[in-house]
Design a protein that fits this description.
The chain is α/β, with parallel strands linked by helices and 302 residues long. The chain has 3 domains: 106 residues, Tumour Suppressor Smad4 (Sandwich), CATH 2.60.200.20; 96 residues, BRCT domain (Rossmann fold, 3-Layer(aba) Sandwich), CATH 3.40.50; 80 residues. 22% of the residues lie in helices and 23% in strands. It contains 6 helices and 18 strands. A 6-stranded antiparallel beta sheet has the order 2-1-11-10-7-8, with no helix packed on it. Helix 1 packs parallel to helix 3 and helix 2 runs parallel beside helix 4. The longest helix has 17 residues. The chain is elongated. The mean pLDDT is 88.
Length: 302
């Protein structure tokens, strides 16, 4: 989301993609009053994505400014050529006219990951996010800013979002956010859009879905040992996001018995009793030998 920040404590102008915003002194999207050096149609600002395949989380819409004025528009104190467009970067300072109409442009990252949404829900979410200048992704990464769910279920995405200190919200949050930007009204309060917890074994009143930054260190000093490659692939990201270390131990890269009893080491249950987990007999035999070691050291499986 591109923001145009006025001087002082005035509210920022938030720019939607695909919309041309006119900067001027009368009847325009970005209104500057009490400055005689501002033309009626002083400049235009437009944000658009430069590519159609928006699969990269670092892709942001390109913000372009065009000067149409009599007294000029200045980017980082350099005067623009009249009638020509220029691309702005986050952090650029823009002065309209020759007095004190000084603004700063900032890009606020918006990468929404969805979980358990149906096709129509994903389509509606993507449409709203694109207009806001953000991206939607299917897999959780550290660049994600929000997890979007109709109701909270325990999934690996949920765990990663909580550990990364990112809020979990209903899809309606972004619909209302978009409406607020379009109408230049106050943005919705995110706390009003936390989804209900849909897990019978969890008391929802004890769940905090806000972005708690201290969770990023929840596994600090811990090494989680996986004996199953599939588990390691699925869960290791959550461990790393939480400041821990994830190790895959197999028959090929064995460790000494003392490794499993080291302080901070947590051995993850390989799921031998799970009928949905296929583990070859040779690997089962090796895992049983590891479990014998754990019993000898009285180590608890996680």
């Amino acid at each position: 989301l591109w923001d145009i920040l006025p001087p002082g404590r005035e509210k920022p102008y938030r720019l939607l993609t695909g919309v041309e915003y006119i900067v001027g002194r009368k009847n325009c999207g970005i209104l500057i009053e009490d400055d005689q050096s501002i033309s009626r149609n002083h400049a235009t600002l437009t944000a658009n994505f430069s590519v159609t395949n928006l699969s990269q989380t670092d892709e942001i819409p390109v913000l372009t400014i065009k000067d149409n004025s009599k007294y000029g528009t200045f980017v980082n104190e350099e005067k623009m050529q009249n009638g020509l467009s220029q691309i702005l970067k986050s952090g650029d300072r823009v002065t309209f006219g020759v007095f004190e109409s000084k603004f700063r442009v900032e890009y606020e990252p918006l990468v929404a990951c969805s979980s358990c949404l149906d096709v129509s829900g994903k389509t509606a979410l993507s449409h709203a996010i694109l207009q806001l200048g953000g991206l939607t992704v299917n897999n959780w990464t550290e660049e994600c800013t929000h997890l979007v769910m109709v109701s909270v279920k325990v999934t690996i995405k949920t765990i990663c979002a909580l550990i990364c200190g990112r809020p979990i919200v209903k899809p309606e949050y972004f619909t209302e956010f978009l409406k607020a930007v379009q109408s230049k009204k106050q943005l919705p309060e995110i706390e009003s859009f936390y989804p209900p917890v849909d897990e019978p074994a969890i008391e929802s009143k004890n769940i905090d879905l806000s972005g708690r930054q201290e969770r990023k260190q929840i596994f600090k000093g811990k090494t989680f040992v996986f004996l199953n490659a599939k588990q390691h692939k699925k869960l290791s990201a959550a461990v790393i996001f939480g400041g821990g270390d994830a190790r895959l131990i197999t028959e090929e890269n064995k460790e000494d018995d003392s490794f499993f009893s080291a302080p901070g080491t947590c051995v993850v249950d390989a799921g031998l009793t799970d009928s949905q987990t296929f583990i070859p007999d040779s690997q089962k035999k090796w895992i049983h030998s590891i479990m014998d070691i754990l019993q000898r050291y009285r180590i608890i499986l996680y």
